[in-house]
Amino acid sequence: MTAWIILVPLIGALINGLVFASGFWKKVLRGDEHTEHNVVNIVGCGVVLVSAIFSTILFIRLLSLPSADRQIIETLFVWIPSGDFSVSFEVMFDTLSCVMALIITWIGFLIHLYSIGYMHGDKAYAKYFTYLNIFIFFMLTLVLANNFPLMFVGWEGVGLASYLLIGFWFNDTEKAYAGRKAFIVNRIGDFGFILGIFLIFFLFGSVNFQEVFGKALDPSFMSGVSAVAITAVALLLFVGAVGKSAQIPLYVWLPDAMAGPTPVSALIHAATMVTAGAYMMARCNVFYSQSPTAQMIVVSIAALTAFLAATIAITQNDIKKVLAYSTVSQLGYMFMAIGVGAYTAGLFHLLTHAFFKALLFLGSGSVIHALSGEQDIRKMGGLRKFIPVTSYTFLIGSLAIAGVPFMSGFFSKDEILASVYDGGYMIHWILALITVVLTAFYMIRLYILTFEGKSRVPEALKKHIHESPYTMTIPLVVLAVLSIFGGYVGVPEFMGEVVGLHDSNFFDKFVSSSILLDGTRHIGHHLFGHWALVAFSIGAAALGILVAFYLYYIKPSLPDKIAESEAVKPLYELSLNKWYVDELYDYIIVRPYCYIAEQLAKFDTKFIDGAVNGVAAVLKETALTLQAAQSGLLRSYASLMAIGAAAILIIIMLWQNF
Amino acid sequence: MVFYVFAALAVAGAIVVIAHSNPVYSAVSLVLTLFSTAVLFILLHADFVAVIQVLVYAGAIMILFIFTVMFLNLRPESFKFDSKYMYFKVSVFFVLLLLVGYFASIGFRMGLKINYAGEPPDFGSAEGVGTVLFTDYLLPFELTSVLIVAAIIGVVAIAKKREG
Amino acid sequence: MAVSIEHYLVLSAILFLIGAYGVITRKNIIIVLMSLELMLNAANLTFVAFSRALDDMTGHVFMIMSLTVAAAEVAVGLALVVSVYRHKETLNIDVLKLLKG
């Protein structure tokens, strides 16, 4: 059954793709559009629902197993039987992949439902669902794989699906370029990942998870492996994660990826694909826990990413761009947790982030739908009266991400901050705390500017504002409920004790069985106890919310004046222009690369094509020259024969003498 | 002695064949060469073959040549000595002549002797030829008859005057 | 006075070369055919000479075969010449170069 979780979406993709997206139904069978629409919906959403149900069944089965044995492995077929290097299509359902599979399939299902409403009337409707199913297939392969090459297949596959979906409306060149940019930047990360896999095979002689991690946990084996090698493996794999999960310096594709349809942004660039890096690193916890150097690098990059992305998000004016940078920032949080060895904390944040970020994206999609495509928040405002469901769910999502107590985001973010503090990373902790302020600030800013206050919507659009259909609002409500209550699976112990609950951190215990080697270092200065840390994060969130509330609700004209003021203006410009990182990359990397590519192309035409043509020309000349011998003159034939005979005789004569 | 006389005759005839401008003279000279060769055959105790040579070669084939020359009414061609590749051809010829001399010198050292005494009694006679021809070489003999039939048919087909 | 076999061989070689020279040099195709006959005759002489030297009748038989083939070849060749002359009105082999190319 485990394998079917992966295969069912593939079947859905094949049906939708081959029958409907290819035009077979419409052009060859002359089917009608209504049936096509309905069948595509049922197949597209249905297969994901089936996968979700299977995942849930297996989840319950896992619960019934004792904690140490929570692992279901199934082998389908041997893919690469090459002597010592034997790779099979093997799936493993343990607690870690269980969590990921549940997120992917259930949230995926909700987003498929949402897409029915959002993509209604789009010309390439069937193609969209095909691509979405392909994405689910590859993503599930990624998380359920039991060896590195198969995981890499999923890794590459989701990159492909991402490219296809970002550039879905490819007739607009900008959008097509965004898709291309995503794929290329991703590729850079993939290169690191592949090198990591090679190194793993070189060191451990296998690429199967059980074998590799088994050897990596064995102290006698590991004494033969140098620390540099393990660090190298960890860092190479991290490079892959940097590309896929948009950390510095490879995050630049994610904001551009907002060119794709909003449900795509919700599914791929919020809940699932970008979290693949975090999953992969949690899976390889054995390596990271044995390499303090790699851990330090991961935490540092993650903290920097979280902070930097938040500083950009506070000034952005496109609703989706704010959310995109917010995603980058929250991914930074996840990686911070993984970096300090608190893998379950990172995954918990992954879970809650999937809830509220998907909610926020879908909500923004609903707003865009209501405003017939307008995405600039300066042209919004006062929408709460018109689209109440969207607006309340959006508010819930914003509060969750800000870390307001008793919502899911509060618990997960808190756990991360606590583990960073415990690990002794003071500076990173302070950065993360500042980022909490910024996060709360930009989310509340976004909410207020979009839904509250005076309406700045242009008159032409005002007439058409309408609440979204049920297919869109139901997922919003479901996700809002999850955003509030989903965090209660991971209430930290010290909080649970207060209300008399023992072992309240169910999530931690559940996932821990997959974490083979704990990597946390408890060297915190213990200046502050648990509750003090909680107080800090609540205070930070409150600070951000209050400042945003004051600036945008009470005195709405103030932010512009601040931005124009002398002291702030340069910083404002830097933030608004994303710290000019894209321009920097263009100047340093893209232009020289294109120049080299052009030179090589010229070289190719001149030399290589020239060589090939030259050979042909030489042959032609030779043939023309030799043609002179075919004169048709009997006499020359005869004389040539005589000369030839004489030559042979001479050769024989000379041969005999020697 | 006899050998040298007739050898010289043969060579002289050959030179006239290739050198003379009038084709009829060439043809007649070729007859002379063939006759001399027949005499040489007799010197080699190949009686039957010599007679066959005179009958077929000098008799039938040369008649055919002379027929054709007369039939086509050929004029004596001008034998220009300064045609393009003349010097080249002459030099090739002399190279080949040198080669002949070389191989001859080898041959003289080899010393393959003619057995003037112990040859079989019917060597070279019709009996001798017949014995070998109809036993060991029967197949080639039959094949030559096929060849001649083919040649006859071919000739008739090619040289026929087409109507219209 | 007995002549050794080499004399015959040298003679035949000379006759052959003279024939070859005629084939290469002459313009008239009938003369070329005649020179060809000369070459064949020289080969026949070699056959018979060796047959005498080795006391084997095979040489004689081959000479007869060669003669037969020469006869057939002359017949067909002359038929061709006649046919060509009818079309082209010339027997100059420098002109008859339809096989060019």
Question: Can you describe what's shown?
Answer:
The complex is a heterotrimer of chains A (658), B (164) and C (101). Chain A has 29 helices and 2 strands. A two-stranded antiparallel ribbon of chain A has the order 1-2. Chain A is mainly α and 658 residues long. Chain B is built from 6 helices and no strands. With 164 residues, chain B is mainly α. In chain B, helix 1 runs antiparallel to helix 2 and helix 2 packs antiparallel against helix 3. Chain C has one domain: Helix Hairpins, CATH 1.10.287. Chain C contains 3 helices and no strands. In chain C, helix 1 runs antiparallel to helix 2 and helix 2 runs antiparallel to helix 3. The longest helix of chain C is centred in the last third of the chain and has 31 residues. The model of chain C has no long low-confidence stretch (mean pLDDT 84). Chains B and C meet through helix 1, helix 2, helix 3, helix 4 and helix 5 of B and helix 1, helix 2 and helix 3 of C.
Keywords:
heterotrimer, A: 658 residues, mainly alpha, two-stranded antiparallel ribbon, 29 helices, 2 strands, 73% helix, B: 164 residues, Four Helix Bundle (Hemerythrin (Met), subunit A), 6 helices, globular
CATH architecture of chain C: Orthogonal Bundle
The shape of chain B, in one word, is: globular
Fraction of helical residues of chain C: over 70%
Multimer state:
heterotrimer
* Class by SSE composition of chain B: mainly alpha
Backbone CA Rg of chain B: 21 Å
CATH architectural type of the domain at 1-79 in chain B: Up-down Bundle
Kindly, what is the distance between the CA atoms of the first and last residues of chain B, rounded to a whole number of angstroms? 60 Å
Main beta-sheet annotation of chain B: none
Count of distinct strands of chain C: 0
CATH first level of the domain at 1-79 in chain B: Mainly Alpha
Rounded mean pLDDT of chain C is 84
Q: Helix tally of chain B?
A: 6
Residue share in β-strands of chain C: under 5%
Q: How would you spell out the order of helices and strands of chain B?
A: HHHHHH
Task: Compute the separation of the termini of chain C in Å.
Answer: 56 Å
CATH H level of the domain at 1-79 in chain B: which superfamily?
A: NADH-ubiquinone/plastoquinone oxidoreductase chain 6, subunit NuoJ
CATH class of chain C: Mainly Alpha
Provide the structure class of chain C.
mainly alpha
